[in-house]
Design brief:
The protein contains six helices and four strands, in the order αβββαβαααα. By secondary structure, the chain is α+β, with helices and mostly antiparallel strands.
């Protein structure tokens, strides 16, 4: 498990706060339901004595837990999924797309997409598309 959450108490604090920085750092399982989740899962908070922590989904599965249907801990985090879909749309369309067209294609607001894309990729969608077109011309 990552150094930011070295103890079970630190992990429990991240679960109760639904800390987005903890997403992917560890997973927690609820012994009474047999389900494991991301620390950011919106499901009802379990009692502390019914919780076990795991470094990855494989360890939770090996211990006999199944993935949560709400947060889908075995898939990519939702933010990465949105950015991956946006990149796929940009790669598939050689013509310049507006932010509105791109956000309609991935079903999020333009403002949210711009902010999310820049945070994950490091550049805006327009800069990404310009770099892709420049690479295609070379």
């Amino acid at each position: 498990m990552k150094a930011a959450y070295p103890t079970d108490d630190a992990r429990w604090g991240a679960v109760t706060a639904r800390d987005p920085h903890a997403d992917g750092a560890f997973f927690y399982a609820v012994c009474t339901t047999g389900v494991f989740c991301r620390p950011t899962c919106a499901s009802r908070l379990p009692r502390r004595e019914h919780v076990a922590f795991f470094a990855d989904p494989a360890a939770a599965r090996a211990a006999g837990f199944r993935p949560c249907k709400r947060c889908q801990p075995e898939g990519l985090p939702r933010e990465l999924e949105i950015v991956n879909r946006a990149c796929a749309v940009l790669d598939a369309h050689p013509e310049r797309l507006t932010l509105q067209q791109l956000s309609d294609a991935v079903h999020v607001s333009p403002f949210h997409l711009q902010r999310l894309f820049k945070r994950v990729v490091g550049v805006s969608p327009r800069q990404y598309q310009a770099a892709q077109r420049g690479a295609a011309l070379r």
